[in-house]
Amino acid sequence: MLQIIIFSFNRAIQLDALLASLTHYWESPDYQLDVVYNTSSESFEKGYQILKDKHANNDRISFHKEGKNDYNYGLKEILNPFNLKRLRKYPYLRNPKTNFRQLTISLMKKSKADNVVFLTDDSVFVQPVNIPNNIFEWIADKPTSKQFSLRIGEGMNEQPSQGITKSNGLLSWNVNDCPKDINWGYQFSVDGHIYNKTCIIKLFSLYMFCNPNSLEGYICNMVRRKGWFNEAKSFSETRLLSFPINMVQQVEDNESMGVSTEMMNDYYLKGYSLEYKIPEKIEYFQVYPEEIYFIKDAERIVKRIK
């Protein structure tokens, strides 16, 4: 069994699209899915309630709303020199507003799964996912060294000209041999990479973060220092794409298209669902579409965004 943890904020309609794609495309292995979410208003909360009601009878999916932070950093965490440097630089880490970090760690500790994959709510699955058992055996053989990506595919994201091998429908490469600023060179990501769960719990317990953005970059840097997760594999064709049409955090200045989350939530409250256009030729994990679609029964509303 695999634990899937999805991070979501104010984007119930986008999360709905992700869950619909997962339900449609996921074949194996069996999974336990935990949604860690938060909202900034009653209107956004109503959107998540609609989504929770929609999946109420699915015992594989659980929703967990972030609560007030009541955790005090331990001495070991505070005296960690890397944490100290970040505490001085980023005031928001000193008194986190929510229990995001502890909630995520506790969910992993409760899960019986040996491996975990993180997703964000602006992604969708685009092809059937059938991960062979030998991939999990491969990870278990050397858990601190290995990761499996669902978002990498042949020819995507400035694939390096050397060092990528293909065999039996799978790609293999050494992350250290790739530029750090492209997907092939990421040691850690919250978008579709499978890791040994015990290793991730250890990392998350050592280092401080308060949301997915403060988590990803920091943990990625720490993993590089440790030399972990350097051996990577993926399918030859990507299973997952990201559609960064809006941005809901203020920690990192990530590129997005500025689509209003309020507008999208209003459509969801009125009974519409969201649909993206999948590119015929997939060249990048992050897709910036010219338009998105709101669907309700036989009605299809086209929203131009580019």
Description:
The protein is α/β, with parallel strands linked by helices and 306 residues long. Helix content is 31%, strand content 24%. It is built from nine helices and 16 strands. Helix 5 (100-110) runs antiparallel to helix 7. It is globular. The N and C termini lie far apart (40 Å).
Largest sheet: 9 strands, mixed
How many DSSP-defined strands?
A: 16
Arithmetic mean of pLDDT: 95
> With helices defined by DSSP (H or I, 4 residues minimum), what is the helix count?
9
Element order: H for helix, E for strand: EHEEHEHHHEEEHEEEEHHEEHEEE
Low-confidence stretches: none
The largest sheet has its strands arranged as: 4-3-1-5-11-8-12-10-9
Strand content: 15-25%
Shape, principal axes of CA atoms: globular
Task: Give the end-to-end Cα distance, rounded to a whole number of Å.
Answer: 40 Å
Give the structural class: alpha/beta
Percent helix, as a range, is 25-40%
Rg from C-alpha positions? 19 Å
